[in-house]
Amino acid sequence: MYKGDLVRVPLRLMETAKANPYGASYLYGWRRTTWEEKRVWYNSDEAKGMTDDGETKLAPQDVSIKLDQDRIYVVVKARTRAPRGYGVAAGCMTLLDTVTGVTFFSYRSNFQNVA
Prior knowledge:
Elements: E1 6-8, H1 11-18, E2 28-32, H2 35-42, E3 62-66, E4 73-84, E5 87-97, E6 103-107, E7 112-113
């Protein structure tokens, strides 16, 4: 896959995800939270108090994006080491959702080129 290619999620991967008894029944991508989303989270009741370990709560770093098998995505960057939580995930690419206009990260192995 290269920059500018059109990609989609193969049907076989969607069927495998639906049959997964241990985790999510869908494939997903992620994007970083915005400053505005973090500010709203810190002002919410969810951010108040301490964790079970007695530490202050940290704002979420990522927002999950459910991948749809019927959608076509545009490859913005084909090879990316994407920020993931407080670490970095290898084997990713940056994609643009053509319906919502959101740019997000996902694993390259989740996609195939549109023929």
